[in-house]
From TrEMBL:
Xref: HAMAP family: MsrB
Residues annotated for Zn(2+) binding in this entry: 47, 50, 96, 99
Enzymatic reactions: L-methionyl-[protein] + [thioredoxin]-disulfide + H2O = L-methionyl-(R)-S-oxide-[protein] + [thioredoxin]-dithiol
Cofactor(s), names only, from the UniProt record: Zn(2+)
GO cellular component, as recorded: cytoplasm
Protein name per Swiss-Prot or TrEMBL: Peptide methionine sulfoxide reductase MsrB
GO molecular function: peptide-methionine (R)-S-oxide reductase activity; zinc ion binding
Source organism (scientific name): Acidobacterium capsulatum (strain ATCC 51196 / DSM 11244 / BCRC 80197 / JCM 7670 / NBRC 15755 / NCIMB 13165 / 161)
InterPro entries (UniProt xref): Met_Sox_Rdtase_MsrB, Met_Sox_Rdtase_MsrB_dom, Mss4-like_sf
Domain MsrB: 8-130
Length: 131
């Protein structure tokens, strides 16, 4: 996968203020407010910044966390994990492997078969409904 690199000014121009805050400044949308939190349609979830395929609806589940949650990415290479010790917590940040955009975090309390919960900001995603 070819990496996408753009200047801060280019990202600001292409993204909405909320998307920029989350994807480029590692922000978080308030729980239970994201447009895709309650989405139950079949389809694919792409990076809102670069369009890379990140997750599929058949791995989405209701975690009760307030954010879209998935038990696995579309492909392991679609996302990258990084240690995050910000805000006095120890977490694993998840970013888009293609553009480096912040997506959310992954936790070891998800369902089988992986036991993982990818807790992802709606604003970092673009949903394409299955046709």
């Amino acid at each position: 996968m070819d990496k996408i690199q753009k200047s801060d000014a280019e990202w600001r121009e292409e993204l909405t203020p909320e998307q920029y805050y989350i994807l480029r400044q590692k922000g978080t949308e308030p729980a239970f407010t994201g447009a895709l939190y309650r989405n139950h349609d079949s389809g694919a979830y792409h990076c809102a910044a670069c369009g890379a395929l990140l997750f599929k609806s058949d791995t989405k589940f209701e975690s009760g966390s307030g954010w879209p949650s998935f038990w696995n990415p579309a492909e392991n290479a679609a996302v990258e994990a990084h240690e995050d010790n910000s805000h006095g917590m120890r977490r694993i940040e998840v970013t888009c492997a293609r553009c480096g955009g912040h997506l959310g975090h992954v936790f070891p309390d998800g369902p089988r078969p992986t036991g993982l919960r990818y807790c992802i900001n709606s604003a970092s995603l673009r949903f394409e409904k299955e046709k």
